[in-house]
């Protein structure tokens, strides 16, 4: 049993026991083992499975691994890990593929699958190809094996070697009861840091707050603890720890594109003229700053797999998304690892002795909104974007420029607006920015007058 809508643009995700069930997990395992064989022609395929803290994850993994095994695959069960640790396994163990069982930042009743072929996360057409293999039902038959494998020691050694001992700074981490709690204390300790950690115990019910650190209300406890302890910053992780959220030493939330600006400035010091990839939700301020520093800014579609692939294609050392997916390909592997990104931030703060506001000095001030997510339906989210396009696509105003790369991004003389349909939920995403308060209100009202008609 499954609803076709769970096969999304860059992962498979839905409400467990409503949009998919355990039999689906078993059939997906058989389909994935067959899909990897079709792609590699290897009889002796080696695959890994990691899972997050959700209550349904262990049962799903049992069925998923059984399905993989029955195609003749050698299956390594990594246990409760972050998505980045699962990605790491494909590099460290040189695997043919991997599946991370995770609902990411969705509510507790969700679960899903982030799928890697070799060292690359599949998306778009390849997700649909996997679905087609599953629906055809012509699965490979074989006698594989299942074994538990603890990859954490290798992961820790890898980053101990990279960072050495970071100069001790006071930092607070918020795991949000997600998978980050399985690794961050050890990871930060081996690199010389002794962080204070909130909600470290993985608990898929998320009893303290929703595990999305890019929403300000989920950072309240983190901001409070940072101010209480005099920490230089606070770092939050989402449910599977591939997305990061940050507050500065005053407890103020730092937007994803502001964090990317700090990283871009650091990377461009050693990689002159480098390409840096951002998504359509990122501020013009960031793109202009990259260009000012003689980097080459590239705006791309939203989606962790899409940005990851673009970084690889462009051979960019760094990129990211407004939503907190941050990708380093200069010293790391080019995938999104939030605890690693947190270490890079700590390294910059320790090295420079600067606060986050000081690291952002010189960036033009702006009036903007965060990424605003409006709950709607799968149908309406698409309709509304089309209606906004109808209004602005044929504008006669010379100051209005339209970008249809992903949804619609409209540039005005004094700011910009974005309206796009989420790829993971029945949600409409909007964001607005201007160089004045009045401009922000005008731009926001202009777009929302269309949006509100169809909600």
UniProtKB/TrEMBL annotation:
Residues of the Alpha-D-phosphohexomutase alpha/beta/alpha domain: 6-134, 154-251, 256-366
InterPro entries for the chain: A-D-PHexomutase_a/b/a-I, A-D-PHexomutase_a/b/a-I/II/III, A-D-PHexomutase_a/b/a-II, A-D-PHexomutase_a/b/a-III, A-D-PHexomutase_C, A-D-PHexomutase_C_sf, A-D-PHexomutase_CS, Alpha-D-phosphohexomutase_SF
Reported cofactor(s): Mg(2+)
Alpha-D-phosphohexomutase C-terminal domain ranges (all copies): 371-448
Pfam families (alphabetical): PGM_PMM_I, PGM_PMM_II, PGM_PMM_III, PGM_PMM_IV
Keywords: Isomerase, Magnesium, Metal-binding, Phosphoprotein
SUPFAM superfamilies named among the record's database cross-references: Phosphoglucomutase, C-terminal domain, Phosphoglucomutase, first 3 domains
CDD domains membership: PMM_PGM
Top-level taxon: Bacteria
Example GO molecular function: intramolecular phosphotransferase activity
Record has Isomerase as a keyword: yes
Entry's Gene Ontology BP terms: carbohydrate metabolic process
Family: Belongs to the phosphohexose mutase family.
PANTHER family from the UniProt entry: PHOSPHOMANNOMUTASE, PHOSPHOMANNOMUTASE_PHOSPHOGLUCOMUTASE
Protein name (Swiss-Prot/TrEMBL): Phosphomannomutase
Species assigned in the record: Pseudobdellovibrio exovorus JSS
């Amino acid at each position: 049993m499954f609803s076709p809508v769970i096969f999304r643009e860059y992962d498979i995700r839905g409400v467990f026991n409503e949009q998919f069930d355990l039999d689906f997990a078993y059939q997906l395992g058989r389909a994935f083992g067959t899909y990897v064989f079709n792609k590699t022609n290897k009889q002796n395929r080696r695959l890994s499975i990691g899972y997050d803290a959700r209550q349904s994850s262990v049962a799903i993994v049992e069925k998923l691994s059984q399905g993989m095994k029955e195609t003749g695959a050698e299956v390594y069960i990594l246990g409760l890990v972050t998505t980045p640790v699962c990605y790491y396994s494909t590099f460290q163990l040189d695997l043919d593929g991997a599946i991370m069982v995770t609902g990411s930042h969705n509510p507790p009743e969700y679960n899903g699958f982030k799928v890697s072929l070799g060292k690359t996360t599949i998306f778009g057409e390849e997700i649909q190809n996997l679905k087609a293999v599953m629906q055809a039902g012509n699965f490979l038959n074989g006698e594989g094996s299942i074994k538990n494998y603890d990859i954490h020691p290798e992961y820790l050694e890898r980053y101990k070697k990279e960072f050495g001992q970071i100069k001790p700074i006071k930092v607070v981490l918020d795991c949000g009861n997600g998978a980050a709690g399985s690794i961050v204390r050890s990871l930060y300790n081996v690199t010389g840091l002794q962080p204070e950690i909130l909600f470290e115990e993985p608990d898929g019910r998320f009893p303290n707050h929703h595990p999305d650190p890019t929403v300000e209300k989920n950072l309240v406890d983190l901001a409070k603890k940072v101010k209480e302890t005099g920490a230089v910053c606070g770092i939050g992780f989402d449910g599977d720890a591939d997305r990061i959220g940050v507050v500065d030493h005053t407890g103020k939330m730092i937007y994803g594109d502001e964090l990317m600006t700090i990283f871009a400035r650091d990377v461009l010091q050693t990689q002159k003229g480098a390409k840096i990839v951002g998504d359509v939700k990122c501020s013009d301020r960031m793109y202009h700053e990259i260009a000012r520093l003689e980097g080459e800014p590239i705006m791309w579609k939203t989606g962790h797999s899409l940005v990851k692939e673009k970084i690889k294609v462009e051979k960019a050392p760094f990129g990211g998304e407004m939503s907190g997916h941050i990708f380093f390909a200069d010293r790391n592997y080019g995938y999104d690892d939030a605890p690693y990104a947190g270490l890079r931030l700590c390294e910059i703060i320790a090295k420079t002795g600067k606060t986050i506001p000081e690291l952002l000095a010189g960036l033009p001030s702006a009036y903007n909104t965060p990424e605003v997510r409006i709950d709607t339906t799968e149908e309406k989210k698409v309709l509304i974007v089309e209606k906004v396009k109808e209004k602005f696509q044929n504008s006669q105003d010379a100051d209005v420029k339209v970008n249809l790369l992903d949804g619609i991004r409209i540039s005005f003389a004094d700011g910009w607006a974005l309206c796009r349909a989420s790829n993971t939920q029945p949600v409409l995403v909007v964001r607005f920015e201007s160089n004045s308060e009045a401009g922000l209100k005008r731009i926001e009202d202009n777009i929302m007058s269309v949006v509100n008609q169809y909600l």
